[in-house]
Amino acid sequence: MTEYTTTDIRNVALVGHAGSGKTSLAEALLHKAGAITSAGRVDKGNTTNDFDVLEKKHQHSLEASISAFHYDKHQINLIDTPGAPDFIGVTLGVLSAVETVVVVVNAASGVEGTTRRMMEWAKNADRCRMVVVNKVDVPGIDLAGVYDEIREAFGRECLAVNLPASGATTVVDCFFDPAGDADFSSVEEAHTAIVDQVVEVDEELMTVYLDQGEVSPDQLHDPFEQAMREGHLVPVCFLSSETGAGVAELLDVITRLMPNPKEGNPLKFVNGAQEGAALAIAADPEKALLGHVFKIAFDPFVGRQVYFRVHQGTVKKDEPLFVDDARKAIKAANMASPFGKESRERASAIAGDIMMLAKVDGIHLNSMLQSTQNDTQPRLEQQALPMPMVGLSVTPKNRGDEQKIAEALGKLIESDPCLRIERNASANETVLRGMGDLHLRIAFERMKEQYGIEVETAVPTIPYRETISRKSEGHCRHKKQTGGAGQFGEVYLRVEPMPRGEGFEFVNATVGGVVPSQFIPAVEKGVRQVLEGGAFAGFPIQDVRVTVYDGKYHAVDSKEIAFVSAGRKAFLDAIAKANPVVLEPIADVEITAPSDSMGDVAGDLSSRRGRVSNTDSLAAGVVAISGQVPLAEMEDYQSKLKSMTGGEGNFSMHFNAYEPAPLDVQKRLSNAFQRPEEE
Q: Mutual orientation of helices 637-645 and 598-607 as an angle, nearest 10°?
């Protein structure tokens, strides 16, 4: 049995911009709690969470790492996440495993790009949020300005629960026991501000507060958590992971004020067997088990490692687990509580726990785990992830490594939801796509370090798409006679454009058996052959509805192959009359650069057919420029940006939409396309 209950558990994720000190903060928390004897350092490569060879080499977190530890009769599952924008998929993947997201801000840098994005992602995921201002001990920092910047960026609901004091060598409490003097603000005023904010969610308590002028911390506990759940309050803590100032106070805030699994905002589970009907899932250890796999890792010695959150029920070691809708159970052997690279074997886990299973197959990212097999197919509604935009084509450096490369790439994309493999048949390319140059570089380094595989890379073909801009009709009568049984199939179909991003829809509107039902799938097969290979420029077709409304057949000569061919040719005929266009991918781009480089950056973006939509001043001397730009124009952008900004510029891209390419680009691509000869 566990030595704690569900209400004793706190699940917390540390997120924020790279360099904000998340890993160092995790070390400080583990040390203060007594989970480790001394705090490691990132620059020495001896931290609990950055244990990977590549993390030590680059001195940055590249994976989400979990450390479970005990403090003051509470079980804390702390997840340290990467801060680089390229690894946003790894970070977002853990949000479903925690109740509270702690956004770490570097006091010396203020609110940075990833900080803003993570606050927005956490809000969209309906997670409780908290801001920790780290590195308050760095000389010359305007902490009052940082606090104002946080409140300006994220709202007036961001309120301090402690404040730096004595030159940021310590902190004073503004909530539990407000006393003493802070460096830049009145402790009494800070206490009043946060109490005023909390009591607004509880009318009865507000009445008591107005009558008596004060309420106790015990009375504020429940409304404090309610205010966090509703986004009405975002606590702000000041600390230094280097000196330890404020670390003990943060542990107290986590254990005394952060929501436990029964109090956090519920996730959205649906019943896949009943067209997405909502399921009520409660963090109750006595109910049927339901777990969700939020992370997959591959260790060269241990093999596949599955990290899952127990959302309901209890799981015991060696008991059977049913994965998704599988009929055959697996055994929950090698179950452990994760602690960085190490793990601690556990005999059972209760609702709210975060566990790891080692040496297991058949479990994948976002799999659901149950203790019994039934008709319910629960699944967790997933938050949409950004689409990977940057790609490189991959070929083996050594002949005969094709199978090894396929296996290694499969493991990489299974462990990182923002890595994607594409196969471009027309260009004979295998393309690995990720969130940026760093993302792909780390993937290829991992292939070499972990799997001993080297590859050669090249710039891939841009993933253009084709669509149509008006309705039209197509017809084909396929007839072939070779002396014996012939082939016959005739198809009339209609095509029409669909809203951008809708994909493809096939409709059978035939009546009276003009085309027997057994041949309709053959017609669709022929249409889909064109969808995949393109009609006039060689790129996949999207946002098209195809309606088959008439046709003819022959009782003897009609065969499936005849209607495949007729469907394909009729579709090509209709596309040619529907004013086809080439679509190009447009990316949202966010660039941070020194203020004196803003003109050069904006001008260069415009020269790439980009549109600047917003500029925003961040920390002193730094601006953020956001806009949209065609992906085809961004091939050399990394090096150009470094050149324009003296190496200080950074950017991130996310897929926005497909838009019609310029006419000269469409003409060039169409002229270069040679459609395979028809039969």
A: 150
Q: Are 510 and 563 in contact (CB under 8 A)?
A: no
- 466-578 CATH fold: Ribosomal Protein S5; domain 2 (3.30.230)
Question: Please, are residues 546 and 506 in contact by the beta-carbon 8 Å criterion?
Answer: yes
Return d(Cα 548, Cα 559) in angstroms, integer: 17
Least confident of 411-415, 580-584, 632-636: 632-636
pTM value > 0.85: no
Task: Give the model confidence (pLDDT) of 125-138 as tens digits.
Answer: 999 999 999 999 99
Q: Which residues contact 159 (CB under 8 A, 6 or more apart)?
A: 190, 193, 194, 197, 233, 234, 235, 236
Distances (CA, A) of 580 to 379, 536, 660: 39, 8, 10
Question: What's residue 675's pLDDT?
Answer: 65
- Whether the CB-CB separation of 530 and 568 falls below 8 Å is answered with yes
- Cα 434 to chain centroid, rounded: 12
Residue range 269-380, CATH number? 2.40.30.10
**Which phi-psi region, left, alpha or beta, contains residue 167 (left: φ > 0; alpha: ψ -120 to 50)?**
left
Provide the CATH number for the domain formed by 583-665 in this structure: 3.30.70.240
From CA 382, how far away is CA 660, in angstroms rounded?
30
The string of pLDDT tens digits covering residues 97-110 is 999 999 999 999 89
Residue 114: pLDDT band with limits 50, 70, 90? confident
